[in-house]
## 1
Amino acid sequence: MRTWNDLDDFQAFIDDGGMVEAGDDMPDEYRSEVFRFIEFHANSELMGGLTERDWIPKAPGLRLKQIFLAKTQDEIGHAHLLYMVAADMGVKDRRSMLEDLFAGRSRFHNVFHYQAVTWADQIAVAFLVDAAAFASQRAVFAECTYGPYKRVLKRIVSEEGFHMRHGEEMLLRLAEGTEIQRQMFQEALDRWWWPAVQLFGPDSDPNDPLLAWKIKSQPNEQLRHAYIQKYVPLLHSYDFEIPDPNLRYDDDAEAWLTSDIDWEPLKATMRNGGPDSRRRIENAAANWTDTAWVREAMDHGVMDQNATAAAGT
Amino acid sequence: MSPSAVHDAVASVNDPEYPDVSIVDLGLLVSIDVDEANRSATVDLVPTFTGCPALAMIAGDVEAAVLTVEGIDSASVSWRRDVVWDTDRMSFAAKRRLATDYTVTLRRKDGTLRCPVCGSDAVTDQSMAGPSRCRSVAWCPSCRNPVEVMRA
């Protein structure tokens, strides 16, 4: 177990490229900030997975159902791994994290506070929102000084890359489809563009400790800017319109510039007061209650029998 | 054109969920049949799991890679259902890469698990379902890291 005299000593260790491990006597400030960050990430994976699940029965065709099944399993699996890492930090146990989430006392990504109304919405989520989440996760993985989190992120980032390919494939199908399909995607884009851009959050406080401790490798505004530079030309290339009358290419800045962003919708989601927050949280809570029997079976040693069977004894 | 060029092309395809691990190292390749006269190649692969969502993507990647081989104008992939994939089909390199880069381990014949992070033998199963059909979830109480296990 490593220990540090004070925060300056700890900062020097981080600046030197140090990696914190679960057994280290890390400063309380680091422990609680990193815990909150991972809990938010875990909650978001779980809420995102439940959205993917909603679309399994509605996805058109067996192959797309299979993809949505797999994505659901991915996201729920990611949540599971992240809750393990978070719970181990000793701030809050796993059950309390879940109970807080289902009681509306926790936060999760803004994009899961909106309703996906049509299949095209779900494709916009796969194409735009997953890409934003992926960019933000990759930026955390890039440095990430908390070892157990970084190891889980390695697999999450690899799998999200796979989701991105599915998102592109599904978008292409609509983009090259009929006028009605293109219209459906345009309407979905109108609903999802701003939530996706806002996922990165408002400009970072330069003194954000998560930046100093290298959990975040880049400030929010840099990630948001890079995302806009990539997705504006991409959506234009498919001949879709971005719902921002002030969007323009600035020759001096050599960049796409958007309207000033209204952060009120994001703030509302962080209070669980977004357009679909209530239904989403109630649905997740009902899911938790409905699956109590699985946890009960697990408590009675189903896993032990599985390990024995796997070993062929 | 040589059959080994086709093999190299297949080996250049990486698993969509392990972006730097070759599908050949993962043991997916069963056989390659090259018909030089017809300038065609057939590649037989085995899925790690039936219902793996990456199959269409892997097949597409393999076909595209094989078509870059000089002398090949048509390529097809078929998924064999009469061959069963298990972790013994993985190369040593793939097993090591999964352990060191992805914190993914394999179950020993006696059912025990070794932690890919700290080497402890105390790893315990947590959940049969992991983020992927082919993996389950375990926990290492020694270094306190979640560990994923390739399911055979």
## 2
Amino acid sequence: MSILKPVLSAHWDEPDSFTIAAYKRHGGYKPLAKALKSTPDEVIALVKESGLRGRGGAGFPTGSKWGFIPQGDNKPHYLVVNADESEPGTCKDIPLLMANPHALIEGIIIGSYAIRANHSFIYIRGEVVHVFRRVQKAIDDAYAAGLLGKNILGSGFDLELTLHAGAGAYICGEETALLDSLEGFRGQPRLRPPFPAIAGLYAMPTVVNNVESIASVPSIIANGADWFQAMGTEKSKGYTLYSLSGHVTNPGQFEAPLGITLRQILELAGGIRAGHELKFWTPGGSSTPMFTAEHLDVPLDYEGVAAAGSMLGTKALQIFDETTCVVRAALRWVEFYKHESCGKCTPCREGTWWLVQLMKDLEAGKGTEADLEKLLDLCDNIAGRSFCALADGAVSPIISSLKYFRAEYILHQTNGGCPFDPVASTLFETAGA
Amino acid sequence: MTPEQAVVAVETVSAVIDGAEVTVPKGTLIIRAAEQLGIAIPRFCDHPLLAPEGACRQCLVDVSINGRAFPKPQASCTMPVENGMVVNTQLTSPVAAKAQEGIMEFLLINHPLDCPICDKGGECPLQNQAMSAGRPESRFEGEKRTFEKPINISSQVLLDRERCVLCARCTRFSEQIAGDPFITLNERGALQQVGIYENQPFESYYSGNTVQICPVGALTGSSYRFRARPFDLVSVNSACEHCASGCDLRTDIRRGKTLRRLGGDDPAVNQEWNCDKGRWAFKYLTTRERLKTPLVRGADGELHEASWPEAIAAAAAGLKDKRVGVLAGGRLTHEDAYGYSKFARVALGTNDIDFRARPHSDEERDFLATVVTNLKTTYIDIDNADQVLLASFEPEEESPIVFLRIYRQVTKRGLVVTSDAPLASRGSKKLAAHLVKGLAEVSGLTAQSVILVGERAAETPGALSAVFELSQSTGAKLAWIPRRAGERGALAAGAIGNLLPGYRPLSDAAARVDLQSAWGVKTLPEDPGRSTSEILAALNDESLDAVLIGGVDPMDISAQALNQLLNTFVVSLEISNTAVTAIADVVLPVAAVVEKSGSYLDWRGIARSFDKGIDDVDLRSDVRILSILADEMGKPINLPTVTATTREIESLGTWDGVQPAFAKRTANPASSDGFTLVSWRFLLDLGSLQQGEANLAGTAKDARAHISSATAASLGVTEADSVVISSERGSIELPVSIRAIADNLIWVPRNSEGSQVIPALGFTSGSVKVAKR
């Protein structure tokens, strides 16, 4: 039996998997009916019991987050789904929304019911117009089927669902920047406290959840907390999507219980591309410190990855083989963070500006070994000094690459330039393969 | 602080900062608590009057609570002190010190090294804190960010983007304090920059504050840019002469010339803010029209320069033993107004004196002498009010710091504002004011409410009586807020026909005797004096022989005022050539505010004194000149200096006897066919104290005629058209603005470019004809 546990991705290979008919064919929207028969508090308790943790990166228990919403406060509550998937390497929500949008919609209805929200929002990154269209169609179909709007399934519960397209800023994946952007302002992180559970969207109690977290809820309702708990590891329960990309034979989504290792996933994916070997990889997108071949057996759950010095993040496993220049890769990433820094705080805005210049010089072989110390010191002055976590993400590829590949940085200097042939690392390059 | 406030126990919390215990009110930020211990944590975005931002990260400190340390340094400008908190600043924590040094280094990598030519150099928080919290040498060897420079974000504010540290003080001020979010942070990352909307300049009445609170040289004022180094300036305490808000100002002078004015820090009044008029309208004293030499009309009928003894003799000859009226004007200091008041009573033997150089009424004069004399309302009452009623008063245009005070409470706790006005001004809209058409519609006033009535109430018969009645019946606190800085002081000085200095009622024999003995005179005139309009009429029909005028623009009073002065002996005390000096027989130049000392009483009746900043031997305060003139007339008033005058005012004190009751008037609603003109002044307009400052004038609001959509339809006009507004006297032509206003009303600004209603139409409110142009 395969180690994979396809739930959300179980039917992605069916041609009409994204339709409401296909979703219902596989039991979709039955959990909703079940949830609407229990009380909102029972739903929250069930999700708490399941141990579901946020799949957007931080891994905060979803049920607890819902429980923070003050009840009986006579204020509107909002459920906002963060579909602003923009982290380099992260590519799980977009395919999920393309192939199975109704799992999210059903999860939203259940979640909104639980937190007593009558209006919910999906904030989706604006660049993925095809996904926007598909989700909008799914929402329209759900309205037409009486699953959204007034008196859903005769339960007396009302819910409006609004799909909102972002304007292309990575920072809007940060939940408070997302709320500002959703309100029509420029997306910049807000000062906390107050936290969104107290004063979020339009200063009202708000839950912001990742797409995958919410989409997982119907399966928990359908199969129960015990079923979910049985999967995963001690503190990281359930199944999740691992997104394998880069120098692998068969990249793609691998849905499996938490705690699987990269070695196991690589076996399923046919290994590193033929003739090459693993050099470094990210466990959860570019903002998580990189790993090397020595971490192939690290259990990919929240605790296991943290113990090994990184973060599970979005489980975006980017695989790089020995043809890749790690200095160049880190430069590319820090260029991304420089471009996406919102500009609000000094260390991120100015620090990434400086890091890019330093990294460019290092990549071009212009630096000295003293520059590596300067680079690390700048990273130390940026990490943990900024307003939000964006800058922490910006320095982690630098710090971790220096940790594992310091010799390669020095090689650039002694070599008077990059010793790698950038073409060799491209996927279309077969000559060197 | 009111007594009720004083007894409220404030919940406090205690923490240890750098080993020293500090107890502060709950909610106090770490950075403020540290200040109380004398520990200065470097900062840029932090400002005590703005909401915390946490953007610059310069103020990072190490924090632990009950032994649990935060893993990372925390921004001390965003975190409130809690019990059990231990804070280690840069003084005691190497981590905090390194964090601050790191942030400072980041701030400097893209900052130009142009301190030697930057206006801020020498008084720059970045410069200073780079010294205290920065590295001695930069490690940055890369390429700095550059921008095209500078950008005019308005005619008076310039932006050098490469100097900006993006602390958002300016944008937060504009949004949170002024309610004018006309500047924002645009773009992102390292290209983030302060900007304006396309073709929408930063035209806020408060824009100058952003220049003052900018912690670097990114925002500069057009009129000061490149004019001076801070260490070349001599600073003096000033009071603002432009309105009755009562702002504390600082005037910076270089080689005998005012170069800039800054808002001073008076928490009870202007906090640290100032309006652009107070900040930038000071060039009037250096225009070409400035007077420095006395002028005497010769036998040839022309004015000739004269020596001081010559001019004083000519003035004395024309005034001595004559029936003289005194028009004191509303811009005088308390001391100067006292000089006019005493001069009228002692040297001229008359009560024919009035400071009201604007539309006025007898009802108002009674109101001033009997009601305003007892008012004790202050800014704190606005802070604590449950409702503020604005009656014939547009705070943003007529007393801008009062506006800021109200606005703060509106944004902070939703203070209810009601405005009795014909239309919602921009200021009213910002205050979310509930508009009423007449005081009868006002409801919900309590003893906790505040009624602010403006000087324009005098133009509506019965309005002041109704306001008084409303305050009596509800217990609401009342304040009268004139537009000009000197009016409240002039009232206290008795520069009005029914009141003697120190609020002594003229009608009270005991009050007169009190004053006689203080002044050492045998008698004082007993008959109530004429008002401004009565004095002018009496001059015209020759029941008065001469007039002494101090700083009055006759066009502020009425269209006929100047003509009424033509056939009489006129002694004019003025700072510049005006329509009055042109027809005067003797012109005596006087010192303007920075050239003299003195004080103004603000609308609360509280004095703010100011020092002389520029010493010009040719220029004297009005009171000094009047004292010389009185000596020459053989009827000395013994006020040789401002200091002596201040001392005399103090020793005289205020009247503690009974005040006469206010004789209320009833309104007689004027009915008119056709259109009724209504108007008030914009803050920035053609006022004579704004002369000579083109950059300031560049941000004045355009004059437009406000009419209702129904009126526009009936006239067949749109906002692309203009209308002609005419009276028997003349007409003005203005573009149309369609607003929510009664169909029979048309509103225009009172004294703006293209819309000077008194000279053009002959009145400030009245029946007019309106037609499409």
